[in-house]
Write a structure and sequence with these properties.
With 380 residues, this protein is of the alpha+beta class. Helices cover 34% and strands 23% of the residues. The two termini are 35 Å apart.
Length: 380
């Protein structure tokens, strides 16, 4: 684990001669990130042995850590591996072919007929996209079950030669994490997903991107990114309106917390208090921006709180490169709701998920939290 104090001390020692160091330190402090988890000890994270070796670390650590959260997600959903019909694997911080989905099927007892859907290039929007594609699958196959796995080792993308203000800010913002969720076509307790959608802001392809070089992924972040809630908030409102809901009057909001400005602006444009984003803000504070994992961890916090109450209406959204929003609306249903008659309007995809920071599985570089994050979500 690395604290804010550690991050600031590193910035001062590593970039003492940087002409904009005071600005960088102020920006890092303003992220609201207090702790992050790293997949490797800090001294290894700061080295750059080359892209090939880093990618080998990515593959080894994914195989070491993902099974644990998959097991938790399946147990929370009261399902066995052979009952899963689709695995959606989301990651933008390493590359494998075949995807980790093939290894999971061969290793953890999934059927050889299990569908595979790897998602690699949606960045932080990937968590929302995974939920939406799982919902689509369970809508097409109402008795099916889909497993979502998000694995992000952002620290493996650290580039010591990238010293622009945006790069140094990113070094203090991103963290590592692994999460899993189950979306059920029927049964379960959680969020019954009702509608999903996607929106891309035109001509913003270069605002968040990777420059792929021999040294690996070099993260590029345009200074205009924090202002993207202006054009994205209307897309969220339109999705809710198409379902007959007012996005300003919902009971819960699970959104990607890329930084504090995102949450501040979204609250302003949606006309909701900042308390509405408490789950997203908590994951940003405790783990940093863990890319596609953020939405799943914010959902875990909703479940850990006991849920918002029967019939509560909510919005889920992930934001990432493109600039893209992957969003959904749904209603909370407890186990008691399953007693009602089954019909087309009540087909459910029950989702349960158990995220944890990467540093709490295997041999973490820092101290293990007493209660590793674990929870459940249930879209349909």
């Amino acid at each position: 684990m690395i604290t804010l104090a550690d991050t600031l001390a590193l910035a001062r020692s590593q970039h003492a001669e940087h002409p904009q160091l005071p600005l960088v330190l102020r920006l890092i402090e303003n992220t609201g990130v207090r702790t992050r988890h790293l997949v490797q000890p800090l001294e290894l994270t700061l080295r750059h042995p080359g892209f090939a070796e880093r990618n080998s670390v990515y593959e080894a650590e994914a195989k070491a850590r993902v099974p644990r959260v998959v097991g938790r997600a399946l147990a929370a959903a009261e399902l066995e591996a052979e009952e899963i019909d689709l695995i959606v694997y989301v990651s933008c911080t390493g590359f494998m072919m075949p995807s980790l989905t093939a290894w999971l099927i061969n290793t953890l007892g999934f059927r050889s007929t299990t569908r595979q859907l790897p998602i690699a290039q949606l960045g932080c929007a990937g968590g929302g996209a995974a939920i939406n594609r799982a919902q689509d699958f369970c809508t097409a196959y109402p008795e099916a079950n889909a497993l979502i796995v998000a694995c992000e080792f952002c620290s493996l993308c650290y580039q010591p030669t990238d010293v622009g203000v945006g790069s140094l800010l990113s070094d203090g913002l991103f963290g590592d994490g692994v999460a899993a969720a189950v979306v059920r076509g029927s049964g379960g307790t959680g969020i019954r997903l009702l509608r999903n959608g996607s929106y891309l802001i035109p001509d913003t392809e270069e605002w968040i991107s990777y420059d792929v070089r021999s040294t690996g992924f070099h993260f590029l972040l345009d200074k205009r990114v924090p202002s993207t809630m202006g054009p994205l908030a209307p897309a969220l409102c339109e999705l809710a309106a198409r379902h007959g809901w007012d996005a300003s009057e919902l009971d819960f909001y699970i959104v990607h917390a890329g930084g504090p400005r995102i949450l501040q602006d979204l609250g302003k444009y949606l006309e909701v208090p900042q308390h509405a984003f408490r789950f997203s803000r908590a994951t940003l504070t405790e783990y940093g921006n863990t890319a596609s994992v953020v939405v799943l961890d914010a959902l875990r916090r909703l479940f850990d709180e006991g849920g918002p109450g029967e019939g509560a209406r909510g919005l889920l959204a992930g934001f990432g490169p493109g600039i893209t929003a992957e969003m959904a609306v749904g209603r909370w249903e407890g186990a008691a709701a399953q007693a009602g008659p089954a019909d087309a309007d009540r087909q459910r995809a029950g989702t349960r998920h158990g995220p944890e920071p990467a540093g709490t599985a295997g041999k973490p570089p820092g101290p293990r939290p007493e209660n590793p994050p674990e929870g459940a979500l249930n879209p349909s």
